[in-house]
Amino acid sequence: MRSKIVAGNWKMNKNRTETEALLAELSAKLPDTNAEVMVAPPYVNLGEAVRYLDDSIIAVIAQNMHFAESGAYTGEISADMLLDIGVDTAIIGHSERRAYFGETDAILAKKVAFALEKNIRTMFCFGEELEDRKSGNHFNVVADQLKNALFSLDASAWKNIVLAYEPVWAIGTGETASPEQAQEMHAFIRKTITDRYDANVAGNVSILYGGSVKPGNANEIFSKPDVDGGLIGGASLVADDFIAIIKAI
Ligand code: PEP
Asked: Per DSSP, what are the bridge partners of residue 231?
């Protein structure tokens, strides 16, 4: 079901003490909201965060997960391990995983399929590089990313998918897609899903925008009809900024 979502991707930031401090501040300042609010601390602090947010509406999600059940995958974390500590949502395909850890569309397709098989809600990230946008190829790139990782799935699997369109040129750069650019791409994404599945699947999937969302631009971006919320990096590390973004939704 399509819902409004604000999710904070903490990346490799915040030790245990800092995690508790940020969660305490978020909990104290959290406004009343109909939106789903999520935070993705680093793996080592996920369990701690789940315990801390036991009674909270803030959900704890993972930044990544592996596609295998278990076994010889040094440094990786399995779906069952996440479920075991109470985490049932994972970000998959973040552009930093693609760029620095060689995660290809083929690998991501395996991760998504396995996550869904395990009933892990998947927040699938994708988006074009700057050269793609400059050359006018951004729609093709985005359509291919969707097709390669998601379009083999049955329509029924989509109830557990959230999309996060994140143009790589806007991530951590201070550069944001304009609200119009975001809306144009989100509408294109919905149309691409309609063409492959149907309007029901496309209309029910939440599509978040990610890329330098800040308190100062969140309102305008979130006001666009096909933008259902945001995946927030840098600004999610500062409680007042993240809270302001939640208020904007
Ligand atoms: C992200 O990493 O998903 C992201 C959107 O980062 P930032 O908000 O810092 O651009």
From this structure: 7, 210
Integer Cα distance of 10 and 235 in angstroms: 9
For residue 20, indicate whether it is catalytic.
Answer: no
Over residues 186-217, the pLDDT tens digits come to 999 999 999 999 999 999 999 999 999 999 99
Name which residue sits closest to atom 2 of ligand 1, judged by CA: 233
Q: Is the CB of 99 under 6 A from ligand 1?
A: no
Strand partners, 164: 125, 208
For the chain, what is the mean pLDDT? 97
44: which residues sit within 8 A by CB, 6+ positions away?
Answer: 16
- The span from the CA of 237 to the CA of 57, in Å, is 18
Q: What percentage of the chain carries pLDDT values higher than 90?
A: 96
Residue 139 CA to residue 165 CA, distance in Å, equals 12
Active site residue 66: no
Answer yes or no: pTM beyond 0.90.
yes
Q: State the Cα–Cα distance between residues 227 and 127, nearest whole angstrom.
A: 15
Of 94, 96, 138, 186, the active-site residue reads 94
Counting from 1 in the atom list of ligand 1, the atom nearest the Cα of 166 is 5
Q: Which distant-in-sequence residues (6+ apart) come within 8 Å of 154 by Cβ?
A: none
Distance CA 194, CA 124 (A): 17
User: 163, 126 in Cβ contact below 8 A?
Assistant: yes
